[in-house]
Specification:
This protein is 41% helix and 18% strand. By secondary structure, the protein is α/β, with parallel strands linked by helices. The protein has three domains: 9-118, Cobalt-precorrin-4 Transmethylase, domain 1 (3-Layer(aba) Sandwich); 121-228, Tetrapyrrole methylase, C-terminal domain (Methyltransferase, Cobalt-precorrin-4 Transmethylase, Domain 2), CATH 3.30.950.10; 240-281. The strands form two sheets. Strands 3-2-4-1-5 form a five-stranded parallel beta sheet, sandwiched between helices. It has a five-stranded mixed beta sheet with strand order 6-7-10-8-9. β2 (36-39), α2 (42-51) and β3 form a beta-alpha-beta unit. It binds S-adenosylmethionine. S-adenosylmethionine binds at residues 17-18, 87, 89-91, 94-96, 119-121, 165-166, 191-196, 223-225.
């Protein structure tokens, strides 16, 4: 799809996740210069704009009216207006509204441009001390224990670092569910109140983390990101015969294919072989 000439640009503007000083100069310039700012919550965004003495028009766009708003915003862009989209905090679309709007605008060939900045998931990952070369963002964990345990169980063999959003008031229940589904020895990091006064980054085994949370009710306040270490493949748990077959297969086939064949020959889960296959390939 070609971009529409003379149309305006939709800027996706990240805002701070706690510390106002984290706003970028380009975000401030964009918010001051666009024709209108689409906000998850106009009153919330007004406070941010006032803090930087920015006066501009705002329009509400949240989960419940995004589908209707997207038509109107696209029309304004087609008329040549520039529009910024912000959420209450962090990067719009990341567990925040905006996906339908961006998809709609892009499908019409309208220009969508990022003004990057804070994101709680990436900020937490940057300080967690867990592997970051590959990771998976899982959004919000379900609030009910049954659904949460199913989600965690499905991720039991995931070898990449896993990033979740969760409410600290549920932290004890969540970590209990991690112990039940992934085991007490799985390494977990809680990144709470990032960039704010009571910023706390605490990492330990799920078992120890549970005891730590139980003895300090202050850890159940505010906002948090939860990061879980990926499943570690213990090469000793894979028989030498499987390893030898995998090594041969990897010489001839892409790692995924090699794992699938070795897994079906020996009746093991293919995910448990993937890290080994990659290391053979390297
Ligand atoms: N779009 C936002 C972003 O880029 O991070 C996330 C919005 S989501 C509705 C809000 C969740 O992000 C919170 O429930 C919490 O899990 C996480 N979060 C936001 N600010 C945070 C902070 N300062 N410290 C820790 N977690 C935070």
């Amino acid at each position: 799809m070609h971009e529409q000439a003379n149309a305006g640009t939709l800027y996706i503007v990240a805002t701070p996740i706690g510390n106002l000083a984290d706003i970028s100069q380009r975000a401030l310039d964009t918010l001051a210069q666009v024709d209108i700012i689409a906000c998850e919550d106009t009153r919330h965004t007004q406070k941010l704009l006032s803090a930087f003495s920015i006066k501009n028009k705002t329009l509400s766009m949240h989960d419940h009216n995004e589908r209707q708003r997207q038509e109107y915003i696209a029309e304004l862009l087609q008329q040549g207006k520039n529009i910024a989209l912000v959420s209450d905090a962090g990067t719009p679309l990341i567990s925040d509204p905006g996906f339908h709007l961006v998809r709609h605008c892009r499908s019409l060939g309208l220009k969508v441009s990022p003004v990057p900045g804070a994101c709680a998931a990436i900020s937490a990952l940057s300080v967690a001390g867990l592997p970051t070369d590959r990771f998976t963002f899982e959004g919000f964990l379900p609030s009910k224990s049954g659904a949460r345990q199913s989600t965690l169980s499905e991720l039991a063999d995931e070898t990449r670092t896993m990033v979740f959003y969760d409410a600290p008031r549920r932290a004890i229940d969540t970590v209990e569910d991690i112990v039940k589904t992934l085991g007490g020895q799985r390494y977990v990091v809680i990144a709470r109140e990032l960039t704010k006064t009571f910023e706390t980054i605490h990492s330990d085994t799920a078992e120890n983390l549970l005891a730590w949370l139980q003895q300090d009710p202050n850890q159940l306040k505010g906002e948090m990101v939860l990061i879980i270490e990926g499943h570690k493949v213990d090469p000793n748990a894979i028989s030498p015969q499987i390893l030898a077959t995998l090594e041969l297969l990897v010489k001839e086939l892409p790692p995924k294919k090699a794992c699938a064949i070795a897994a079906s020959i020996y009746g093991v889960k293919k995910n448990t072989l993937y890290e080994m296959a990659l290391s053979f390939k390297r």
